[in-house]
Design goal:
The protein is of the alpha/beta class. It contains 15 helices and 13 strands. The strands form 4 sheets. A 4-stranded parallel β-sheet has the order 1-2-6-7. The protein has a 4-stranded parallel β-sheet with strand order 8-9-10-11. Helix 8 (165-175) links the parallel strand 8 and strand 9 (183-185). Helix 7 (124-148) runs parallel beside helix 8 and helix 8 packs parallel to helix 9. The longest helix has 27 residues, at 297-323. It is globular and about 60 Å long. It starts with 13 loop residues before the first helix and ends in a 12-residue tail after the last helix. Mean pLDDT is 95; it is low at 340-346.
Length: 346
Amino acid sequence: MPVGTQATVKGLTPSHLADELDARIVLANTYHLYIRPGHVTVKRLGGLHRFMNWHRAILTDSGGFQVFSLNDLRRITEDGVKFQSHLDGSPHMFTPESVVDIQLALGSDIAMVLDECIGYPTTWQEAKASTDRTLRWARRSFDHYGRQGSSATALFPIVQGGVYGDLRRANAEQLLDLDADGYAVGGLSVGEPREASLEMAEITTSLLPPDRPRYVMGVGLPEELAEYVARGVDMVDCVLPSRNARHGKLFTSGGAFSIKNAQFKDDAGPVDPACSCYTCRNFSRAYLRHLFLAGEQLFVTLATLHNLRRYLDIMREMRDAIINKAFPSYLTCVRTPAAPVRDAAG
């Protein structure tokens, strides 16, 4: 899922996303939209789809990760999390119930429960207390969601547990009682080693219903996507393709490189000869380097188009391989040396 934090994927129009990239779903951020322009305003203007003129699917995260990243500006209680706006310092509170209400007002297709995202490293005792709270919040979220009678928005609980397999297993098994439309795996890509992230994903997805979407939040590099899918993951999101694009890092079928390098000054070739995106069809590496060094906004658009196309092409390749029962061969071709799968899914 391309990340459109503030109801926009930076540098791109909805037409770019739909017509050029054929993105089927984007992610928007509950915290940022709550702070500005406000979910009440978005609802009054017809909901998030109309507000951003995006007529395909939207997933909103709970805003929990952003709130917990505020550090000194937030305080966790059993009721929820009190925090100050990063914009003006004004006080606010997210509860499991209010976060459901905010997302229903936004009108997203998939919403997330409020969870407590812990960092890395943390002790088992700290992770246990946090995971237990996440479970209680998830149950409150689903109780409130059930009372709202909404069938247009699916609600996903989030499995937490840090890098402790026993906590992940217990949390996943307890959340199964909610009989949700899908399940998310949170608390990864927060500084833990890649091997630990893959292990926690594998442990968790093996316990989640295979007929429901299994979503790992916030991953990963292009070479990691197949490893998560091999462990039973169906959905991922990540800011890496768009954020790296803005800083001049481009992902290609032959690896990543920085366009600002002097070797591309007179390079008339495309970013990736194997790519058929708009950028690669029409512009040279030399031109992109010029735009980047000149600080031209067009660079952001062209680079983001290419990087997102690379990510979405990888996902399409994997879907085709699975449909054609060729995913094991695909995985062998793309696998990096660091990631054995003990019990690969699919």
